Fold Peptidase M23.
Amino acid sequence: MCEHHSPEPTSRLSRRGLLRGGAVTLGLAVGGNVLMPGKAFAADYYHPFSGYPLTGTWQDHLDAGSLGGLDYGMSVGTPLRAAGAGTITNIPYNGTGGHTVTISHSNGYRTQYMHLSSFSLSNGAWIGMGGVVGLSGGQPGAPGSGSSTGPHVHWHMINPSGVRINPLDYLGGGGGGLPKTTTEEDGVPGPVMWMRTQNWLRIESGYTGPIDGVPGVNTYAALQRNMRDHWGYTGPIDGVPGTYTWMAVQRLAAAWGYTGPVDGVMGPNSWRGFARFINQDSWD
Ligand SMILES: [Zn+2]
């Protein structure tokens, strides 16, 4: 499906697979990471494509004479999210790779995304984990598709020595989920809590923005939809949470051990209850 290896017919992508391709499942390896100079820190990365069908394995690539890669089938125009934070380099015509984005990460590793239909950012731009590097492509013959024979993204990592490596090896078997938020202990909402919240809202309530831990109007609108659907919120879906939105969140928290008032004022105990909910493995 990609450069230097045998094509994967588009027809082998099931309709279900394509539908599943509409949702990105996050996976983020956290086990056993120790911050050491020059050592990879896998918790700084997640697997942005784990919710899509793997249509070309690393070994498939090697067998076809490629230096390696992973192909994930997805409809043209799917937002491609950064596996980790870093600096963007766009390579408009990267031979068989077509439109290619390279992210240079702070630990010397790079990730590359190939066969894009469009770029999102300029050269030298900074991107956070989960930000959109561009839109997927791969339609045969389309600008930027390179040698691709069907819609997909090709993804690989490059280590600091310049050797291509399998992201799944690096992340430890494909990622073990988003880290748990410490809000459950300290009652203080932070970026990890909001990343998990965004992923929960992506799964349950149609949130389509970045999983970046920075809640904005879209995050709050999805939160309001969830509160309307499950926790008795009847106010507007305007992305501006007020007392009634937070009262609904407190009702959720009460189902997870919060015993304080339902007054719309989120204190540490309200957040602890919410965090117990959001720390469930199902929202990894
Ligand atoms: Zn490939």
